[in-house]
Design brief:
- By secondary structure, the chain is an alpha+beta fold.
- The chain has two domains: 44 residues; 111 residues, Arc Repressor Mutant, subunit A (Orthogonal Bundle), CATH 1.10.10.10.
- 56% of the residues lie in helices and 12% in strands.
- It has six helices and four strands, in the order ββααααββαα.
- The strands form two sheets. A two-stranded antiparallel ribbon has the order 1-2.
- The chain is globular.
- The relative contact order is 0.08.
- InterPro entries: ArsR-like_HTH, HTH_MarR-typ, MarR/SlyA-like, WH-like_DNA-bd_sf, WH_DNA-bd_sf.
């Protein structure tokens, strides 16, 4: 879409309003963000993809989960999670343990090696974010954090098209 300038020089999507252009910009910039996140994840730990990093973080945060819980939480196909879990197990980063409440169920947990890998990558990611955002005023950082939480609280459509309920609130909003 081409953009035309309005009298106040705000670009507007052809046939649209400034809000339409803003939505297009958000979509484009979030796509760029996602591409950079995937690329940087590979540089920070070559064997740890962004999906793997995310799964490890969730397992640490929740003190273990079933693979089906991971798939549901991240709206991923079970086969995708299965491949990731297998790779993480082969790398010695996670292990399966029998659920003490239901011996038919296996729960995924980080190994000590997995915790160390996650800690190293997390610290590198924090450092990279701090460097990139170092010259942002605190007010902008707080506002950006709140906007991201608000955006990510939108419910995810499941395979049946129904949306899960969003989790209200967050740290910044």
């Amino acid at each position: 879409m081409t953009a035309a300038a309005t009298p106040d020089e705000t670009p507007v999507a052809a046939g649209g309003r400034p809000a339409d252009t803003a939505v297009e910009t958000i979509q484009r910039e979030m796509t760029t963000f996602a591409r950079r996140a995937r690329a940087s994840a590979g540089r920070m730990h070559p064997e740890l993809s962004l999906v793997s990093y995310t799964l490890l973080g969730h397992l640490e945060e929740r003190d273990g989960r079933r693979a089906t819980d991971l798939a549901a939480h991240y709206a991923l196909d079970k086969s995708t999670v299965s491949r990731q879990v297998s790779a993480l197990e082969r790398a010695g980063l996670i292990e399966r343990r029998v659920d003490p409440d239901d011996h038919r169920v296996q729960v995924l947990h980080l190994t000590e090696s997995g915790r160390h890998a996650l800690d190293r990558v997390t610290e590198r990611r924090r450092t990279a974010f701090r460097e990139r955002l170092a010259d942002w005023p605190e007010e902008d950082l707080l506002r950006f954090a709140a906007y991201l939480e608000r955006y990510n609280a939108w419910p995810v459509a499941g395979p049946d098209g129904d949306r899960d309920r969003a989790v209200p609130g967050g740290t910044y909003g």
